[in-house]
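User: Fold this, then the next.

Assistant: Folding the first:
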Amino acid sequence: MSTEVDEPLPEPTPLGEGGDVSYGSLVWSPVPARRDLLAESVLAAVDALPPDVAKWIRVAEIDPDLADTAAMTQEYNVPLAASSNCVVVAGKRAGEERVAACVVRATTRADVNTSVRKLLDVRKASFWPTDRAVEASGMEYGGITPIGLPSEWRLLLDERVVSGPSIIGSGVRRSKLLLPGGVLTALPGAEVVEGLGRPVG
């Protein structure tokens, strides 16, 4: 299943008065109804957002074995381009390690060697080892999300992720978050970067 990132994505379908919505084959609930589905750091970050921003974030429980984007997309019938992946990239300058979380649509790859390297002002940028990213973020592998990351990291958003619905991690593998892409721009320190994500193929 594939969806071009520049095509309009379908919007979630409201379900009754409780705030639940349908997207793909999943039912997504407002965070207050399923706080148990978010990692502690992510939940704290959602609670710290202005109420008129946080109210748009919804969560759905999934099979943790299907947390990887390709598997989730196929199993739950969501558009591939609706998923936004968060990858951790780092480089060094004068002995100082500089870290950035990059959020790009699943139909693209983060332009690490050019865009991210220049933004971090380092000679070489590369993906952080999984164990370091998991330990530093306090989130599970496959669940790392732009919400609730360490404040010293830069948060880089590809322009494609800030329009239309975005499915992102929840900090744990057993759930995903669904939100309007514009909510990501309200996260502390968020920077929208043109061309951060390069189309795959």
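Now the next one, as you asked:
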Amino acid sequence: MEMPPGPMPDKSMNMMMQMSFYWGKDATILFYGWPGNKLGMYVLALFFVFLLAFAIEVLSILPDVKPTSTKPMLGALTQTIIYTIRMGFGYLVMLSVMSFNLGIFIAALAGHFVGFFLVKSRALAVPKPTETTSRTAVIPKV
């Protein structure tokens, strides 16, 4: 059988990508050779993915800030920048999880969990005006 034209595969480029979840500190996350095979660097990678996922949840509430009426373009630009940063972080978390390392997957889930919990608990703690607090009862004097 004849080989197709094009570059021949090099035996030194024998890189196999993991295609199922696995445990272990030997992983390649985002960049070739990172975090390496040292436990400290792996823990740093877990913390980095956790922070990225946490930041996504925190940044998800910032676009709700209303632009000022005096400078609507500045408000729109601010919201666009925050959205772009959040999407960039989202893609980095997605690429990290695609390493199929179970520790990285759990760190990403934990970051989203903690971030969502803190953001939503703060939002629920703010009292919302109700009908009874917005109206004042007028009691006629006798």
